[in-house]
Amino acid sequence: MSHFISLSTAEDMTELFRNQRENILKTAFQGNNLLPICETFDRDAFDILLAKTGCVSLRIYYGMSEDFKIHAIIVAADEEGADMLPTGNNLNEEDDDIFENGNRCPDLCPPTSPLNS
User: Fold this and answer.
1) 49-79 per-position pLDDT tens digit
2) How many other β-carbons are positioned within 10 Å of the β-carbon of residue 18?
3) By residue range, what is the domain housing residue 96?
4) Sign of the CA dihedral with 75 first, then 79, 82, and 84 last
């Protein structure tokens, strides 16, 4: 199965999301930039996950910070589709198994492109 889509399809999908992202929220949550238009991550983070022994894919989860803002959370997955997560006693420590902390737009937006304007 190909994961690739055309620029035209991507433009249509991102435009629909930008136009509707506030409308899908309850009124009390609108206007707070809870749903990002996009998030930008450094390549190094992807390279580290992809280099893990057994990694055949990346999985994107969506999480929420305490201020209700949605964030992409990225993990490696193995050939059986299982998440490759930290184990042992260091579950509360940051390591190189899970990443988030992307530059969320808004506020840190990339230059204008057909996918974000």
Assistant:
1) 999 999 999 999 999 999 999 999 999 999 9
2) 15
3) 33-105
4) negative
CA–CA separation, 59 and 75 (whole Å): 5
> Structural domain tally of the chain?
1
Q: How confident is residue 91, by pLDDT bands cut at 50, 70 and 90?
A: low
Predicted TM-score of the model (pTM) = 0.87
Distance (Å, whole) CA 116 – CA 20: 13
Burial tier of 48 (Cβ tally within 10 Å: 0-12, 13-18, 19+): middle
Has residue 10 been placed in a domain?
no
- Inside any domain, residue 113: no
Residue whose entry in the numeric block shows the structure tokens 């707070």: 32
Indicate whether 49 belongs to any domain: yes
On whether residue 81 sits in a domain, the answer given is: yes
Report which of 15, 33, 47 is spatially closest to residue 113, judged by C-alpha positions: 15
Contact status, residue 72 vs residue 99, Cβ threshold 8 Å = no
Nearest residue to 110 (alpha-carbon basis) of 40, 41, 33? 40
In this structure, what DSSP letter does residue 57 have?
A: E
